[in-house]
Amino acid sequence: MDTRDLLSVGLAQRKREMPELVRVDQYMRGVQDAPYMPKRAEAEFRKLVARSVENWLPLIVSVIAQNLRVEGYRSADNPDDLEAWRYWSANQLDARQNAVHRAALTFGRGYVAVTPGDEGPAIRPVSPLSVTGVAADPDAEWLDGAVRFLGRTKRDGKSFERWQVWDDYAITDVLTPDGEHERADKWITGSPEPHGLSRCPIVAFRNRWGDAPNTLPHELGEVAPLIPIQDRLNETTLNAKIAESYSAFRQRWASGISIPRDPKTGQPVETFRAAVDRLWMVENKDVRFGEFEQTDLSGYLASREAAIKSMSAIAQVPPHFLLGGMVNISADALTAAESGLSRRVHERQMMFGEAWEQTLRLAAEADGRDAAAGDTSARIIWHDAEARSLSATVDALGKLSQLLGVPAEALWERVPGVTAFDVQAWRRAKTQDATANLAAQLLMGQHTSEATPEDGGPVGRE
Fold it and tell me: What share of the chain is helix, strand, coil (3-state, %, to 5)?
C-alpha cells in the first residue's frame, strides 16, 4: 500500500477502535459510568454517587505488570548478554519497559518505535491511543504500516490534524482537514523521509492473539472484561453508602406527646432532637418511646466481597492481593495461591518477549549490524518474580548441581532476587579468585624447585 492507501485504512481502523480504547482509558483513570441516580436527586445524593466509585482496575494491571521485568538478551550457547543488549540501557528501557507492558495489558496492544539516530538506534514507546497498527494479515509477525496522530495545527487560517504514516520504506507527514478525514482530495502530503530499515519500524506488543478476524484490540486486554464487574462494585458501594447515611443511624420515635408550636409562626417546635449528648424527658407518664433498628450492612459487604472475588477469578489475580487477610501463611500455600497469576505472567512473558526480540533485532539493523539483526535464536531473559522460599530454593538448586551434575554457575540466576548484575559480579569474583589461586600455586612451585638441600628443599637420589 502507498502512503494514502495506508492512511485511509489506518483512519478507518482507528475510527472503529478508538471509542472503546478511550472508554478503557477513562475507566483506568476513574472516569466511569456513574451508578443509577434519580433525575431529581439532591446534591447530597450526588456526592454519595461520586464517592461510591472505587477504581480496582489499575490494581489488576499493576499486579501483572510488576511481575514483568526484562533483564537480559542472550543466546542459548552464551551465558552473557549479547552485544545488542547495549541498546536497551542506551534507551533507558529499564524504566520505559513498564509503560509498554502496561499499555499492552490495558488496551490489548502497545507499540514501540525504532528509528536510526546519531548516537545509535532510538527505541521509544508510543501510546496505542495515538498509534494504530495496520496489517493485512492479523496474524503477521510484522506490521504493514502504522498511522500516528500528532495533534492539531493551523495552516493558512484552517485547522488540520497532523498524522505520520509509517511504512516499510519511509515516514511521511500528512495533514488532513479537521473533522474531514474522508476528503482525501484535501490531504496535504509531505515528502517521505526514508528510515533505512527493511520493514515498518513500529513493533506491536499484543497482550493476546485474537481468535477472530474482527476482534478489536481492547477485547484482548485485561481491563475491558472487568468493566461490568467494576460497575457492579460501584452500584453495591453506592447502596452501602446510602444505607450508612440514611438507615444505619437508630431512628427514635415517641407517641402520646403534644408538640408545642411557636406562638408567632404557628410552626411546630422540634424539641426531641436526637444526639449523643441529648436526653429526651417528658412529664407525662403515658408517653411511650422506642426506636427503629438500623440497616444491617453485612449483606452489602458480602455482595461487595463477592464481586471482588469474581474480578480476582477472571483476572487470575490472587484474592489476597485485593482483599488482604492472609497472615502467617506458609511458602507452599502462598505459591499455590499465586499459581494462577504465575501462569498468566508466564503467558505475557512469551507474548511480550517475542516483541522485545523483534525490537532489538530492528535496533541492530538500524545500527548496521546485520548478523545481530538476523539472529532469531537470541531470547529475552525475564526476572523471576515468583514467590519462593530462599532456603528451599537454594537447597533444591544445590541438589540439582550435586545429583545431576548441572554446573553451579548455570544455577546462580535461578536464585530468588538475584539479578543479571549479581551473576556477572559473582563470575568476575570467581575468575579473580581462580587467577589468584593459580598465581599462588605457581609461585609456590617455583619456590620449591629453587630450594637447596641446606634450605630444607628436595634432595636428589643417590
Answer: 45, 15, 40
